[in-house]
């Protein structure tokens, strides 16, 4: 029951955050429309010059279907997230994984590969997302050892107080599910 409650809380938090980002992006676009028609040429130009932040935000606009709505937004989003990731924005790998999670049938290998790329290269977000997916068993198979491993890495990697508390909360939940000898083995592997 607690697991369901926690999962629902995560979905609620993610939904609220996603809606805030969408609202902020829509507000920005509305302001730009008031000045003139939406002109993404500067953002696209910067993205083409390999500015990873421009690539990331352009991909995000495509992912939210806010650019052309021609059915090609998802592929364009993946394209710009991949370019952003190759230029060092590791969270872009996570975003690609999330896009593939929405597709049916699920291609678990592809999804895991994108989350793993972010996580193994040191992205807190990638590590947290890997841990949560193993903990809840959604997308990935339920595996408390892997959940513990990735959430422990995330908790050691995070530098933001809010996310630090968040990581510790889920790490404590996983700790209760593993025998002490398994935790010790994982702890030693991370030293």
Description:
By secondary structure, the protein is mainly alpha-helical. Among the domains are: 1-33; 115-191, no CATH class. Helices cover 76% and strands 0% of the residues. The protein has helices at residues 2-35, 41-48, 52-63, 73-86, 91-102, 108-120, 124-136, 144-157, 161-175, 180-189. Helix 3 (52-63) runs antiparallel to helix 4, helix 4 runs antiparallel to helix 5 and helix 6 (108-120) packs across helix 7. The longest helix has 34 residues, at 2-35.
Structural category is mainly alpha
Strand content: under 5%
Tally of helical runs: 10
Which stretches of 5+ consecutive residues score pLDDT under 50?
31-38
**How does the overall form come out from the CA principal axes?**
elongated
**Mean pLDDT metric:** 76
Major sheet description: none
- SSE sequence, one letter per element: HHHHHHHHHH
Which descriptors would you attach to this protein?
191 residues, mainly alpha, 10 helices, 76% helix
What is this structure's SSE topology?
Layout: H1 2-35, H2 41-48, H3 52-63, H4 73-86, H5 91-102, H6 108-120, H7 124-136, H8 144-157, H9 161-175, H10 180-189
């Amino acid at each position: 029951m607690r697991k369901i409650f926690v999962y629902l809380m995560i979905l609620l938090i993610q939904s609220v955050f996603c809606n805030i980002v969408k609202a902020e992006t829509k507000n920005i676009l509305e302001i730009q429309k008031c000045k003139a028609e939406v002109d993404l040429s500067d953002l696209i130009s910067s993205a083409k010059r390999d500015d990873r932040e421009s690539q990331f935000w352009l991909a995000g606009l495509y992912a939210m279907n806010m650019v052309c709505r021609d059915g090609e937004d998802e592929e364009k989003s993946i394209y710009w997230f991949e370019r952003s990731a190759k230029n060092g924005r590791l969270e872009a790998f996570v975003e690609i994984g999330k896009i593939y999670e929405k597709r049916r049938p699920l291609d678990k290998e592809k999804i895991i590969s994108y989350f793993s790329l972010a996580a193994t290269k040191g992205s807190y977000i990638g590590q947290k997302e890997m841990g949560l997916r193993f903990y809840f068993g959604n997308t990935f198979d339920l595996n408390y050892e892997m959940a513990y491993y990735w959430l422990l890495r995330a908790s050691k990697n995070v530098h933001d107080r809010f996310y630090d508390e968040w990581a510790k909360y889920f790490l404590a939940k996983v700790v209760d599910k593993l025998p002490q000898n398994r935790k010790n083995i994982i702890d030693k592997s991370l030293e």
